[in-house]
Design a protein that fits this description.
This protein is mostly helical. The protein has a domain of 53 residues. It contains three helices and no strands. The radius of gyration is 31 Å and the shape is elongated.
Length: 107
């Protein structure tokens, strides 16, 4: 016999309906993004739109995640090192000599 999970649902029924409607429109190519009005081409984007609409209507949906911040201790620490100065590629003397030689040809 299957056991029931302890705790309450993460998403409410209204949220489920909104996502279902968004996916229905997405599959038929009728779902448009809010700001630009372009047709949504990503399945994840369609789900996000459904959840966003459910949030606006006050349905039970977890708060939007804000992305993970990288901590200073994660990864390799880089030591600040001085970059060597780049050598100048332009040679002003050479360009001047070209100008003078072209002028002398014209005269």
């Amino acid at each position: 016999m299957p056991r029931k999970r302890a705790g309450s649902r993460k998403y409410g029924a209204k949220a489920s309906q909104k996502v279902e409607r968004a996916m229905h429109e997405y599959k038929r190519g009728q779902l448009k993004s809010g700001r630009s009005g372009r047709t949504v081409k990503s399945r994840k984007q369609a789900i996000a739109i459904g959840l966003s609409e459910a949030r606006e209507r006050g349905a039970k949906v977890p708060a939007k995640s804000t992305g993970r911040k990288r901590s200073a201790s994660s990864g390799r620490k880089r030591s600040p090192r001085a970059r060597p100065a780049k050598a100048s590629r332009s040679t002003p003397g050479r360009s001047r000599s070209r100008r003078t030689s072209s002028r002398s040809r014209q005269r």
